[in-house]
Amino acid sequence: MASIVAANRKTLMLFSGRAYPALAEEIGKALGVAPTPTDLYDFANGEIFVRYQDSVRGSDAFVVQSVTEPVNQWVMETLIMVDALKRGSAKRITVVLPFYPYARQDKKHRGREPISARLVADLLKTAGANRILTVDLHTAQIQGFFNGPVDHLFAMDMLAGYIEERYQGRPITVVAPDSGRVRVAERWTDRLGGRPLAFVHKTRDPTTPNQVVANRVVGDVQGRVGLVVDDMIDTGGTICRAADILYDSGATDVVVAATHPIMSDPATERLKNSRISEVVVTNTLPLPPEKQLDKVTVLSIAPLLARAIREVFDDGSVTTLFGGLS
Question: What is the set of domains in the chain, with CATH numbers?
Answer without folding.
Answer: 2-154+303-320 (3.40.50.2020), 156-299 (3.40.50.2020)
